[in-house]
Amino acid sequence: MPDKNDSSKEPRRPRGATHGASARHLVSPAQWAESVVIGAPPSLRIFAIAGVQAALAVLLAIVATHLSPWPQLVGYASLGALAALFGRFATVERRMRIVVICALLLALGVLVPSLASWAGALPWMMVLVLALVAGASTVAVSWWSLGGPGAVIIVFAAGAAYNPVGSGAEVLARVLATLAGGAVAVLSCLVTDRWRATELKNLRLPPVHVPPWSHQWIAAGRITACAALAAWIAFMLGWHHPAWAAIGAVSVMQGGHLHITMNRALQRMAGTIVGSFIVWAMLAQQPSFWTVVAAIVVFQFLTEVVIGYNYALGQITVTPMALLMTYLASPTVAATMPVERVLDTMLGAVLGIVFALVFSSVDDRMHLHEHRSRAR
To answer: Where is the composition biased (Basic and acidic residues) (predicted)?
Structure first.
């Protein structure tokens, strides 16, 4: 019989790695205190340059589309311009490849739900399509190592295309406008990316941990299921933007570890509440088109500058930017947007952390236990 005291046996898992212990870690005062810590971005200059590039791309895309014969497509063009957000720490050559890929992914994010709507998909089917886009974009971001801001931007584009489509011509127009915005992003980065070259030479970033493909597929499956549930609940509650609940779930579940996931959940909810109040105050003044455009550009730049310090700060500025872009596409929903954004975000964030914990591996929970033990 084996010796019960055999020291060669695999050590027992610590008690702190159970689901219950992990849940207690995630709601502990130490976790809440960690979520409000102001950190230091790897390079404020690069974040600022990325902010200028994204703001410039969005501005050019909006203005060009508004002055074109198709001003109703201004929202889709501005979505395509968000491709400039990706690859801020990549080399100049690799950055161009990343931005092109992201521009195509954003166009696909618009194309898939638009085609589904044109084909007559029922509302519950559109929720499923949205969730599938979330999972597929998660895999794509990992496959091409596109980095931040990750799949959440692709889901944001898909959410914008959630509205009903009346014809194939409308589908084509949406996709072409998104591609046009992506082309503006590519050109904007191509012209200005030399600003990053000197800073990149002096920057030493830690190596990026790339999990095994099996783990990435599992993560994509979790995100798909959570996004589907969040969007379905929002739909069943009669909310007009179930995509926002899915976005909240995806953004939270992009965290690499449980404590980071919880931080993002708390920070996203807090930042969204403040940001929604800001945009409510702005829309109450019935701003002109150009005032809205100026605000979008300013908030886009500020988001890239402050998000490296704390994710909540980025949410305070990105929420008005996202809602104002939605307002440009659908001015009639302005009155209910801020409140629904808060509710959708809270729903998605809560479900995101619940999914992350319930479906966590032993290694995930052990990492959380060790992280919290080191922090004591």
So the answer is: 1-13
